[in-house]
Amino acid sequence: MNRDFNAWLSGFRDSIADYGYYIDFEKVHRNVDSIKIELNILNSLIGSKNIEEDFENLLKKYPEVLKCIPLLLAVRANEIYCQDKNGGCLYQFNGFANDIDSYKYFMRETGLFDLLENHIVNNLVDYATGVETGLDSNGRKNRGGHLMEDLVESFILKAGFIKDVNYFKEMYIHQITDKWNIDLSAISNKGKMEKRFDFVIKTPNMIYGIETNFYGSGGSKLNETARSYKTLAWETEEIDGFTFVWFTDGKGWASARNNLEETFDVMQHIYNIKDLEDGIIEKTFK
Description:
Elements: H1 5-10, H2 25-33, H3 36-42, H4 51-61, H5 69-72, E1 79-84, E2 87-92, H6 100-110, H7 112-117, H8 124-137, H9 140-158, E3 167-172, H10 173-180, E4 196-202, E5 207-214, H11 220-236, E6 242-249, H12 257-266, E7 270-271, H13 273-277, H14 280-284
Parallel strand pairs: 5-6, 6-7
Antiparallel strand pairs: 1-2, 3-4, 4-5
C-alpha cells in the first residue's frame, strides 16, 4: 500500500490530553488528608505575636507536625539540606532528629515563620492543597506518556483482543522468546540487549511487537526515536513470524519530520491515531 507521507503527517494531533491529564485531584486531596490533622495544629501559629516560642512549645507537645514542613516549601522529601554563612545542616522531618533551635532557625531562614506570623496565609490546609496541586502538575509528563498507550490499548480491546490471552502489556524480549519459542536475537544483540515492547499481540500467524508514543513538542529525542525504530524495523525483517508495529502521533514531529519520513519510507507498519480510528488494527493484526 503506497501512502503519502505529507498527507499522513498532516493528520497528526496537537494533543490527546484527557480531562484527568492536567491535575490528579484525587491524589492531591489524598496527600493533604494524610497530614490534615498536623496542618490544623500548625494553623495555631498563624498570626502569632511570639511565633518562635509558640513554635517551640507546639513542637514539644506535637512533634509529629514536623512531617508537614517540607510540603510547605513544595518539597517531597523527609529531609532537606540548607547552608549559609553559618554552615550547612541536614534537617530531618520524619522524626525529632534535630534540636529545636535548629528547626527554629530553619523556619526563620526559609521564610515559613514570616508566612505564618504575618497572616500571608489564613489556612494551611488550603495552602497545602494549592502546593500539592502545583506539584502534581509536574506529573503531567508521566501521565502524558501513558495517554498514547491507553489510547492504543482501547483500540486493541475494541478489535476484540483479550488481555493476557492474545495481547500483553510491557513484554520483554526474553518473555516473548520463552513464551513462543521464537528467536529474537536479531533485535536483542544476541541476548545482550533487553528491549521491552509496550504491547505484544499474538495471532495464529504472527507475533506483533508494538511501540507507542505521542510527542506534543519537539526535541532531539524525536530524531533518536525515529532512527532507532527504523533500525528496529530493518532488524525485524529478518525474523520469521515477528512484525514490528509503531503507533505515533503529535505535532512535535514537525521539528523532526525528515527523520520520521526516512522511517516512514522503509517501515510498513507505522501508523497514527487517524489510522487507528480507520480500523488499522482489524486490517493488520491477522
